[in-house]
């Protein structure tokens, strides 16, 4: 399904103190924001039902003459895997930093599960002086858990992340894929409800990347954490995602919203099927800046279903 993720809203005027820099806890069902969005898309199908992240009328600029976001709105439903695609420099990492609370919106609001967001930046950022176990546990410790309990939880998860027996190893003793898995485990342990993954596999060789993607799908299908995933790789986005959000114009004010649909579970063979190839062509068209205005974009309305 193709749709614009910045619906016209009935009452755009904020309550005093409600907008402009607020980033508040999203309390799930029953919020005005949720119901307004659904009213504006009566035919919209949400497979997951409960919103986990809502961005409304977001505005942000590092320099006043070069805004990055202008009145940007979109939602993620609980349990969704959504990929964000945009040309380099358009603001993907900045959006993650805003959602994670590392930057403050200059306009609009972000509703996110406060204290339950795991952010995995582009580089794994493991601390070279800490063991695998201590790196994986650090988010829990920062959250106030005792070191002993945090390490116990991390230890339990090592086998699931293909890291059994590596708990005492140092980051420099690991392969690139193993480092990414430690980093992902740290984000998952720290996050809980929403994971922001910023091009996690871009530095890996092709074969490691494929096995990491398939591994990530297995982990996601087991935990069903909501994931927002940045990638430049359309194949990767199609393999992993329920939906793609695509930005092609700066400042970003609207996103093409492309539903990938079934089948799941997917494998690399799925990408070679005609429906996926067709969808990939459409996505590549949308990514070309200035090629297609939003109104003219005609996506495969039913995704792959
Ligand atoms: N701290 C900062 N101060 C000033 N400008 C910044 C800062 N961080 C990012 N920018 C600028 O904001 C814009 C968006 O940057 P951002 O890193 O979010 O883009 P991106 O889409 O993630 O890029 P890429 O795909 O290359 O990682 C760029 O023009 C960048 O130069």
From TrEMBL:
Pfam families: ABC_tran (PF00005)
Comp. bias regions, Polar residues: 21-40
Domain of life: Bacteria
Coiled coil: none
Keyword annotations of the record: ATP-binding, Nucleotide-binding, Transport
Region (Disordered): 1-45
SMART domains: AAA (SM00382)
SUPFAM superfamilies documented for this protein: P-loop containing nucleoside triphosphate hydrolases
ABC transporter domain location: 53-274
PANTHER family, alphabetized: ABC TRANSPORTER ATP-BINDING PROTEIN (PTHR42788:SF2), TAURINE IMPORT ATP-BINDING PROTEIN-RELATED (PTHR42788)
Protein name: ABC transporter domain-containing protein
Originating organism: Paenibacillus physcomitrellae
């Amino acid at each position: 399904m193709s749709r614009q993720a910045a619906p016209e809203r009935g009452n755009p005027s904020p309550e005093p103190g409600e907008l402009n820099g607020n980033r508040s806890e999203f309390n799930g069902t029953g919020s005005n924001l949720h119901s307004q969005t659904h009213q504006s898309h009566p035919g919209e199908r949400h497979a997951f039902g409960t919103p986990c992240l809502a961005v409304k009328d977001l505005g942000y600029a590092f320099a006043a003459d070069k805004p990055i976001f202008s009145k940007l709105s979109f939602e993620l439903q609980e349990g969704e895997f959504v990929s964000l695609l945009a040309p380099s420099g358009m603001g993907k990492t900045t959006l993650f930093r805003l959602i994670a609370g590392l930057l403050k919106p200059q306009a609009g609001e972000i509703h996110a599960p406060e204290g339950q967001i795991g952010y995995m930046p582009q580089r794994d950022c493991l601390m070279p002086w800490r063991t695998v176990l201590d790196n994986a546990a650090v988010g829990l410790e920062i959250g106030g858990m005792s070191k002993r309990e945090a390490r116990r939880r991390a230890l339990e998860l090592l086998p699931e992340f293909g890291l059994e027996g590596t708990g005492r190893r140092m980051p420099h003793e690991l392969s690139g894929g193993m480092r990414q898995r430690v980093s992902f485990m740290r984000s998952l342990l720290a996050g809980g409800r929403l994971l922001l993954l910023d091009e996690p596999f871009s530095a890996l060789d092709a074969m490691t990347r494929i096995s990491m993607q398939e591994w990530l799908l297995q982990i996601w299908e087991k935990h069903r954490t909501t994931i927002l995933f940045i990638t430049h790789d359309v194949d990767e986005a199609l393999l992993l995602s329920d939906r793609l959000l695509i930005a092609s114009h700066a400042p970003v004010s609207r996103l093409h919203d492309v539903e990938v649909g079934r089948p799941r579970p997917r494998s690399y063979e799925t990408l070679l099927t005609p429906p996926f190839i067709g969808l990939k062509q459409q996505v590549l068209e949308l990514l070309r800046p200035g090629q297609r205005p939003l109104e003219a974009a005609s996506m495969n309305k039913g995704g792959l279903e």
